[in-house]
Structure formats: C-alpha cells, structure tokens
Amino acid sequence: QVQLVESGGGLVQAGGSLRLSCAASGRTSSRYSMGWFRQAPGKEREFVAAVSWSGTSTSFADSVKGRFTISRDSTKNSVYLQMNSLKPEDTAVYYCAYKSSSSSYVTRWSVGSSDYWGQGTQVTVSS
Residue 11, CB half-sphere, CA atoms under 13 Å: how many? Predict the structure, then answer.
C-alpha cells in the first residue's frame, strides 16, 4: 500500500502562482511515475501533468503547457507542481497520482491506470 499526501493548494488571483507538493510513503516501488490530475465541479477528473521515475521525462495537458512545470525529488519520494499564470478555469481539486512504471519515458495516462491517489487539494483561482 502506498499513501500520497498533497499540500499547497489555496486561493489565488488570476495571473498568480501556486506550488503543489505530494509526498509518497509506504510500500513504494523502486521505479514509479507520479502525476497530477484535477477535477472541477461537475466535470470528470482529467490529466494535468506527469513525471517519470527518473525525472527526465515529463508530459503535460495542452491546457497547462507553458504555464505548469512538474518535478520530483526521489530522495524525498515527492513530486511538485509549479503552477504559474493561473486562470479561473484552473480552479479544481488537484489529485496526486502514482503509477508503477519502469519506463524512463512518461506519457499521459488515464484515471483508471493510476495505482494510488492522494486525497486532493483545492485550488481556487479568482478573476
């Protein structure tokens, strides 16, 4: 079993920035991808970004490319989502996701392909 704990959400004005963090604990694999998904009210959960186990490969949804970056610190079993130039449409609950994978190349994955989820953290962007 793997536990994921997110932090860093909050309320920010449009154009502002936030940094989300997610720490994994428990029986983590030696190689696993980590990612972020989000779910706005009345909408399905959607992929936002992911990073490979090595940290050398990343993938982003088109809606956040150029504004969000993702990184990880393997020594801390943590992943970070830096969100810049935030827009009201970025408002959602953001979920950290864990997927066992030995591939050095990461691509977006579906909600059903995640092995574990965090509890979510609210991000609200006011206009």
Answer: 2
Give the DSSP letter of residue 54.
Answer: T
Residues paired with residue 22 on neighbouring β-strands, in sequence order: 6, 79
Please check whether residue 28 is in contact with residue 2, taking contact to mean a CB–CB distance below 8 angstroms. yes
Instruction: Please give the backbone phi and psi of residue 75, each rounded to the nearest 5 degrees, phi first.
Output: -70, -25
- Say which DSSP state 31 is in: S
* Structure tokens belonging to residue 84: 């810049």
What pLDDT, in 10s, does the model give residues 94-111?
999 999 998 889 999 999
CA atoms within 13 A on the CB side of 66: 3
- pLDDT of 30 reads 83
